[in-house]
Amino acid sequence: MVEALPRHGLPAEEILDELRALRRADQPTHGGRLFAYVYDPAVPGLDELTNAAHAISASVNGLDPTAFPSLLAMENALVGAAARQLGGGPGTTAPDVVGSVTSGGTESLILAVKAARDARPDVAAPRIVVPVTAHAAFAKATHYLGMALDAVPVSPSTLRPSVADIAAAITPDTVLVACSAPSYAHGVVDPVAETAAVAAEAGVRCHVDACFGGWTLPYLRRLGADLPEFDFAVPGVTSISVDLHKYAYAPKGTSVLLHRDASLRAPQYFAFGDWPGYTMINPGISSTRSGGPIAAAYATLRSIGDDGYLKFAEITRHAVRRLAAAVEAVDGLRLMAPPTTTVVCFTGPNLFVLADELTARGFHTQPQMHYGDIPASIHLTVTASVAPHVEEFAAALASAAAAAEAHGPVDLPAEVLALVTALDPAALTAEVVAGLAAALGLGGDGSPLPSRVAAVNTLLDAAPVPVRERLLVEFLGLLQRPAFD
Question: Which stretches are annotated as coiled coil (predicted)?
Answer without folding.
Answer: none
